[in-house]
Amino acid sequence: MEPLTWTGFASFLNPILLIAIALVVISALVNMVISVFASSTPPQVNPDGTIAARGGLPDLISNILHWSFLAVVALVILYAVIGIFMGPAAGIVGAMSQRFLPVWIALVLLFSVSITFKRRLGLYGKLFDSPIGMIGFGLVMFWVFTGVLGALDLIVTHDPLSQVSGMKNKVPGTPLNDAEAGEYAWYLLGGDNLARDIFSRMIKGAWIVVQIAPLATLFAFMVGVTLGLPAGYYGGRLDTFLSFLANLILAFPVILLFYLLVTPEIVATGVPNYMAAVLFVFPIVFLAVLLNSRYYTQPSFRTPLLIVVLGVSIWLYLALISTEGYLVNNGKVAIPGLPAILDPFDIPGGILVVFVSVVFVNSPTVFRIVRGLALDIKTRDYVAAAQTRGEGPWYIMLWEILPNARGPLIVDFCLRIGYTTILLGTLGFFGLGLPPESPDWGSTINEGRKLLSIYLHPALPPALALLSLVLGLNLLADGLREESLKD
Amino acid sequence: MGLFILRRFGVMLLTALCLTFVVFFLTNLYPNLEKLAKTQGNQRMTDEQVQTWLDNRGYTDPLLIKYGRWLGVVPGFTNTLDDGQFVGSCARPGLPREDVPSFCGVLQGEWGYSTVFKEEVGEIVAKRLGNTAYLMFWVLVLMVPTALLVGVLAGMREGSVTDRSLSTFSIITTATPEYVSGVIFIAVFTSSAVGLKWFKGTATQAMDNPTFENFFLPVLTIALYGMGYIARMTRASMTEVMTAQYIRTARLKGVSFPNIVMKHALRNALIAPFTVIMLQVPWLLNGVVIVETLFNYKGFGWVLVQAAGNNDIQLLLAVSVVSVFVVLVTQLISDIGYVYLNPRIRIS
After folding, report:
1. Least enclosed by CB within 10 Å: which of A165, A206, A264, A459?
2. What is the DSSP string of B141-209?
């Protein structure tokens, strides 16, 4: 079997792509220089009183920029399409594009449905009016679909943990020595230091991020909102105390906190379990107060609703924090938790501690944002109206203030998922928390960097994957901010 | 103003106390002490031996007493082992027994003795902080002017191609954590695989002999991540100023565009970024830890990793005191600076 080149059959496109990219860069730079120094050409006034814009040099340059940029986009799509049909014949890029086929289908479906119904979808639909937002959303959904479908073993070519002899540190596109029937014949992005397939590890790494980052951010938001609203609304001693606590956590350098919390020794003491037990109460409190403050005037509806919601969430809570029937069981202390029969899932100590520390680091910042928003919004007229109506404080906080603070909060949510992804990568980079063979991006970068001066390929794919996901989230947040400001 | 600063110092002190206590608590949990005993004594110690080792050195005393010893309000621990060896929290190798002071805490100016480096904590921190300060100085020299320039150029004409390209650039830099950009830079500029070899992949030599070749990449890596955020804030502030009434007035009376930017807009647009820059400094601390690990530059971040990895209690406490101090002082400076820079607040 021949080793794959990067583009294979599609190589004839390479020079065109290079020219197009060069044009984009040059014209953008020239445009920048011109816009600083040259004054804009005034429009030409015609004898009949109309005016016409004069196409000068700046105009020409921005036209070149526009078209060359479109050309680059079109060429990239062309590479992907050729790849889908030709597979490995179109080189590594083609083969990867073919492996990603389920993701492309999911993306096309999602985008076509969303764009068709965008007028009925509220803020989400408006996202498709902003190109930046669409690019960001596309990048994010690409990794989400990759993570989910990769977890279903649709995209991966090899087992991310198994080692294949003779593939140690092999460059991208190296064929396997003796591929069995049904086995994928190449290591698309090469092999790492332990002869594992880098492509498959990158895909599996996406699943870890997709599982942890949004959920951890959501929990951080629940904690931040539940504490930030009363701090901002009531003010006074409560505010002083909570703000002091938040500033205390924020004064910790994140990495020091990680080094103190995310070690096997600390996991053995059960500190993360106690923290989990405290932090995960907040979503339940949030839900209970949210529903109770809204429906307490209709007890016949409220009581069954609360019983169902709280029952499910308390069961989930107990299942989340207890492992094999115990909350903490380290030989010295054993606190019984939910019996193992009722416990549908166990979270390994390593994952739990990562999750808890990420929530812990993020929630003070959310608290400060929510507190600031609450301070601002509580002076509005509609809050005064609700107070006059005799609404309770929690109703005002959760049903008057919170919905009106949603714009900045949604934007911050997107940014914060990106930040959480970076934090997860940092943890992996320092080898904290997740098991060393885990395919998450941070650990893979950390492993790859040791041989970076000789072999580039193990460290770069996870690094670029992380970069593109966080970039996507940032762009998405930007798009959402732009669109929510238009309201 | 004096009262304000005094109050802030009070809060700062309280924060530092709480924080060091948390660090103290976490590092004094039994599994951590066990690890310490095994790395200091012998890896193959039995549980009883670990217990005796810890008992003999005062590690199993109540937490508050140990914390008091570290602060210097409780007399230091002393004990003579069975073999006649004198141990104690104030004892140092080479110091005669009679000269060992009874109090040795932070209040006496003693930061303790590092179990990893076998050196005074104060000396280690001072030396490593010097290295990091040098790194940070160059980071700020590179980051602040570039970020301000990018932000001002982008915010000058909102929506122009310049704005879009520079905004894209700043978004990309904020989305690239240090361990990603550092790895990419090392791969592209130092590896034999690409073959450019413009720079050196480690900054080990930069501690004694910093040159452009071995020092630029670490500086660039930290600066880039912080740069995007400052640039975006500057851009936001600049666009806001550029739509203000007095700018329109200036345009209408015929002031040229460069003059408007330089004389009317710039000063007002730079007030907000100042706060951001000061608040960014503690953030750089994280970057410093990552970059110092990545480029093997032995500074403050490297000490933090070593201290935390080996559960070196007193070194870790000193490290956290320094970082808390950095965070709170920069906050204070940004508050004071904001008041001082903004004439609307200063005069009223």
Report:
1. A165
2. HHHHHHHHHHHHHHHHSTTSHHHHHHHHHHHHHHTS-HHHHHHHHIIIII-TTT----S-S--TGGGTS
Picking from A374, A471, A466, A365, the residue whose alpha carbon sits closest to that of residue A422 is: A466
Round to whole Å and give the CA distance between A297 and A292: 9
Average pLDDT over residues A130-153: 92
Residue B202 confidence (pLDDT)? 82
Nearest to A31 among B14, B26, B162 (CB): B162
Asked whether A28 and A21 are in contact (CB, 8 A), the reply is no
Chains A–B, number of C-beta pairs less than 8 Å apart: 161
Residue of A253, A446, A453 with shortest CB distance to B192:
A453
Cβ distance A271 to B22 under 8 Å?
A: no
CB atoms within 10 A of CB A204: 24
Are B155 and B242 in contact by the 8 Å Cβ rule? The answer is yes
CB–CB of A449 and B294 under 8 A? Answer: yes
Per-residue pLDDT averaged across A60-89, rounded? Answer: 89
Residues of B in contact with A445 (CB under 8 A): 179-180, 183
Q: What distance in Å separates the CA atoms of residue B64 and residue B84, rounded to the nearest whole number?
A: 28
User: What CA–CA distance (Å, rounded) separates B61 from A408?
Assistant: 49
What pLDDT, in 10s, does the model give residues A281-296? 999 999 999 999 989 8
The answer to whether residue B285 neighbours chain A at the CB level (below 8 Å) is yes
Quote the minimal CA–CA distance from B97 to chain A in Å: 34
Do the chains contact at A442 and B179, CB–CB below 8 Å?
yes
CB of A133 within 8 A of CB of A475?
yes
B343 CB neighbour count, 10 Å cutoff? 11
**Listed residue (A312, A324, A332) closest to A349, CA to CA:** A324
- Return the minimum-mean-pLDDT range out of A73-77, A398-402, B77-81: B77-81
The confidence band for A306, taking pLDDT boundaries of 50, 70 and 90, is very high
What is the Cα–Cα distance from A370 to A229, expressed in whole angstroms? 6
**How far is residue A462's CA from residue A445's CA, in Å, rounded to a whole number?**
6
pLDDT value, residue A19: 93
Contact between chains at A471 and B304 (C-beta distance less than 8 A): no
What does the buried/exposed string (b/e) look like for A218-249 if buried means 16 or more CB atoms within 10 Å of the residue's CB?
Answer: ebbbbbbbbbbbbbbbeeeeebeebbeebbbb
Distances in whole angstroms, Cα of residue B225 to Cα of each of A59, A341, A421, B220: 33, 48, 15, 9
- What does the block give as tokens for B147? 């970020």
Q: Helix A198-234 crosses helix A441-449 at what angle (to 10 degrees)?
A: 120
The C-alpha angle A453, A459, A465, rounded to 5 degrees, equals: 145
Report residue B348's pLDDT band, with 50, 70 and 90 as the boundaries. Answer: low
Q: Tokens for A160?
A: 């991310």
Q: Please tell me the distance in Å from A362's CA to the nearest CA on chain B.
A: 14
Residues B227-249 pLDDT 10s:
998 999 999 999 989 888 999 99
Contact A464, B181 (CB under 8 A): no
Q: What is the mean pLDDT of residues B72-77?
A: 82
Q: Please give the model's pTM, rounded to 2 decimal places.
A: 0.90
Please report the DSSP string for B214-261 in residue order: HHHHHHHHHHHHHHHHHHHHHHHHHHHHHTSHHHHHHHHTT--HHHII
H-type alpha helices, A165-298: 198-234, 236-251, 254-261, 264-269, 271-279, 281-295
Least confident of A65-69, B104-108, B322-326: B104-108
What integer is the mean pLDDT of B201-218? 84
3-state DSSP assignment of residue B112: coil
CA–CA distance, B104 with A145 (Å, rounded to integer)? 59
